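[Automated response] Your request has been received and processed.

Submitted sequence:
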Amino acid sequence: MRLRLIASALLATLSLTGVALAQTEVITARREGLRGVGAHMEAMKAIADARGNPAPAVERIDAMTAFFTTFPTRFPPGSDVPQGTNPGQTRALPVIWTDNAGFLQANANMLTQITALRGAATGGDPAAFAAAFQQTGATCGGCHRTYRAR
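Generated structure:
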């Protein structure tokens, strides 16, 4: 009987460890993806600021579209381990899970804005690209204010 109890406790501990590792992986993946988006935005900022040819930005915009298309799936229940704790760290606020409809709408808004940014990039007009880039940054910031801790 005692051996069964020990075995059950061990299995429960291993199960929880597996869940914690999975949550750490999803947090790490979304954090890395968002860093990638930040790098794309920095590179496009240089184009917008210089009023340069926006065509090279299309590849970056496509990468951002691919990321944001699956972005909501990167926040499964339980992946809200606060920053500064282990095993994972996130700046995602609980409102992502308590107002998931709002979060999904914010992501849809981002995808709409990225589509507009792509249109401006393929149109070749540096001024239109700069304006669309500025609006894309504002859309990013709007999501950050509501759904991300500073």
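Summary generated for your ticket: The mean pLDDT is 86. The two ends are 51 Å apart (CA to CA).
If you did not submit this request, please reply to this message.
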